[in-house]
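hi! just following up on the protien thing from before. the input was this:
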Amino acid sequence: MPATPQLNEFLFNQTGTDLDDFLEIKGDPDTDYSAYTVVVVEGDTNATYSATGKIINAYQLGTTNADGYWTTGFLRDGFQNGTQTVLLVKNFTGTAGAINSAKTTDLDTNDDGVFDSAPWSSVVSAFAVSDGGTGDITYTTVAAIGATDNTGYVAPVLTGDKAAGASLFAENPYTGSASDWIANDLTAYGLPGGATTAPPSGTAINTPGGANNSNGASLPGATGTTVTIQQLNGNSYTMPYNKQTVTTSSIVTAIDSTGSIGYYLQEADSYASSGVGSRAIFVYTGSASKLPAVGDAVTVTGTGSAYLSASASDILNLPELNATTTTVTSHGNALPAATILGTGGLTPPSVIYSGTSDNLNTSTASLQPSVNALDFYRSLEGQLVTIKGAHVVGATASGATWVVPDGVTLDARGGVIESATNFNTPRIEVYVDTGVKGSAGTTQSVFTAQVGDTLGDVTGILTYYNGVFEVEPVAQPTVTSANLAQQTTTLHGDATHMTFADYNIENMDALLSSNATRVSQLAQIVTNNLGSPDVLALQEIQDDSGTTNDGTVTAAQNIQAIINAIAAAGGPTYSYAEIDPADGTQGGVAGGNIRSVFLYNTDRVSLVGNVSQIGADQLSTTFKNTRLPLVGTFAFNATGQQVTLVNVHNSSQAGSDEAYGSVQQPYNHGSSDPYGATGVNTAANTRQAQAQVITSYVQDQLAANPDAKISVLGDFNDVDWSTAQQIYTSGGTLTDLNLKEDAANRYTYVFEGNSESLDHTLGTSALYDAAQFETVHTNSEYPDATRESDHDPSITLLDMTCFLTGTLIATPGGAIAVEEIVEGMDVLTASGATRAVRWLGRRAVDLDVLYRGRPPREAHPVRILADAIGEGVPARDLLVTPEHCLHLDGRLVPARMLVNGRSIRHDVSLRRFEVFHVELSSHDILLAEGLETESWLDTGNRHLFGNVVSIGAPFALDAGHASWADAAAPLATDPAFVEPLWQRFDARADMLGLDPRPAPALRTDDAALALWLDDGSRLAFGDLGDGQYGVTLPAGRAVRALLSRSMVPAEAIGPFIDDRRRLGVAVRAITLDGEAIGFDGRGWHGLETAGELSWRWMDGDAALAIEPSAQARRLVLVVQAVASYATEAAIAA
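and the predicted 3d structure came back as:
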């Protein structure tokens, strides 16, 4: 009777194109094995189809050759490169085919990892290969396979290099151990089209149709060299005992009963370390039945393995030991102490890696844990660590949560912001592997957390997966929620201000029923958090068939569904503008044809002409597989002013080298810069090349109109300090508006726990000067399962009343911009006379410098809208300083006294500007934009101007100063004269259709008088009547201040009241136990009198020093007057 055949050798995934895929069977020579079939079962999960368990290949055997081998022959892509189970079965009756074919036999219809049917009489040999994908399934146990000719047989799961190709070496091929297999050479040396250079010793050579060749590798059953774990790991990224048989002993610290089944072994605390390599290692067993218990002392023999996924080209290897035998020598041993990360323990260096390497996996350079963060974490791989006071800086996604230990500086919302000089290396991922057990013997549950939450101390195994260092907990982390709330903008449009926002809404298909929650969230964010901007620049909207790759490019239905959802949420019914792309040219998700779109509210703005695109002639170069920038010009309906928006979504960073990968310095995909300092990416479609094209477009527009308001906004896929972003801002072409907000708020995306700005709003000078800006955090800090997008939106408030670079001054030859006036030039006065300019004063003003970044509203220039005073007066918006006087009804009135917040208002968008003053030989009335305003009157402040030196001797600084007695008209600040003017211009604002004045704030005449005592408490006065208020001062208590509500007459009553003092109450007298006491100093205004009465106003917080006494005392306040104060509710509103 012929011997039972067995699976013996295979090559599934060679380097480069798979030309030489093969599988070999070993049996008796010249024997017909046609009753047997090789069956390949899909193990990879698929988002569209139920793929796992389907038979994707079946090869019926024939007759073996003279040496007893049968092969499939060389097949081009004959076997897939993912997770799969290979069975050698007898009397096969099933059908192999594509995973989406109804004819293909599905052995596991409910995808539970157990076969539901077995279309064969028996299984005689099997193995599985795994690429480690989440949710992948291998079918390896007897119960899963069905009937078998080999009782007790458990098929091995091959991973790493062995998953790509391996040869069997074992006296008993049915041990079920992966260590029976040795990884084959993946360069296909000796095969057709393969490498011509032999592989290094220890890598099996492919020998289809012949005896397996170990090429010097240690064979199963050898005990090899006895080493410590640290010796096994080595002191570099090259494992010194890779593919060699070794024996080591130590303590089991954790076990993993799922996925890569095995246990963690760590040297005891008493071990005297002499190297920098890790003192722990993962021991792969491939079978849960072979696992020891946590706390066991074991001696293990196996093969060293620098485990490396065959599908990854830029990740580091992970040292492992593939166990052949595990012998338990004792139970219940104390575990090695966990290494502390954070306070009282270790902190990684701030530099990831200071050197360079094309492949650290082949580097023999010694680790430097005190220099490089990469080396620091490598030196702890496999060891027990404790993250002290873990603070969440990256929300949970796919079971992974990014944290930092205590002692790391956090931003106001609990994250860490990446910068050009700070990569935040203490960040580390906490990943719950539900198969990992610690000393308690329990597995951990997946938890969900968001930025700002805390997990307490997290103890687990530090390991490495796909370019990321992670800690797998051995005890359940406890989430303490910070209840981080979404932000809501403070910027809202009005009659003179337009709003626009940018927002990447992440592969939005609003027609897909499973996206209903996301669509609702999007609508709420637009209406509530962003306040329904006038224009929305959106990115990543899919076509009407979503990810179905059917040639559809239109997105009208999808966009309309978004618009309808926003309207249903209480927002406007937006119109939209976009340009359908050519099919398959946009990059992004396959079949989606993602594009950028403008939504705009026609009640507020109008699209000027049609939208256009930049770079349509460069689809095969600069903008290959990326979105073309969408250009739209919008007119603000209220004023007709225009702004041009360039909606960008530049090349993705997907495919970048891992920061903690084998390539140092790693390359940032889509940029011609590496993260570090070496190398050049010469690809045409880089974000730098895109920046050049977009910036050139803006420069061309500015050449035609230097005052153009242009914004380039959207998803740039680059951080502020990248070379690409510097292209936009170099030479002052554009400025990033995020400079206008607090640095702690400047991020739109959280990647692996790093808060960073990938989305930007850039503006030309005219736009930047007229803009306010906010990033609104609604998504990036929250878990995948609960957020709408992975990006945060930003919003810009733009003054659309037209910032004038030059106020026009009337001259005999026509109006001329004030900055173009020169000394000696003639100007016209309001009387029609011609006067020569004596001097033009210039002064640059930066309110942020003057007021340390918090300028009060009244410091900003006053903008007088066109027609605010009368028809055509002024002819255009006029900007003047608050104290500059207008000539009205024969008198001079400071502009600040006419501010109504509507047609005449402080322009808070202007923080940096240049002031011009025209001086004549004597004070006179000029015509500025057709409005009568004063020339400059030298009252002693000439030294404030930057061009004093231009004044000749007759106008020296020590010359006599003028006064208002020298003015061309009387100065009027009396409310009896000014208030009627204010009322007239406010009524005219109604006629112009400007927004109505807000309802008056609720006010009270209760001054809320109180004493502030030395213990920080407040002691309220009682009303005694007749303007007297009393309080009993407790024994032993001292008084430090007199407190009350307060108001500013010019704010509470109106700007036509020329009293800008803050007033609390007017005090005539204070008595203590009947004796008068004095009151002046801090918080007290000057003495006022009327007849025989006198009083002082205090400002709401005035000094009043009364030392303590052993006895209680009576304090009485005699009040001359109280004011009308805003209530606390009005102030809060």
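Residues 167 and 442 are 37 Å apart (CA to CA).
DSSP finds 13 helices and 63 strands in the chain.
cheers
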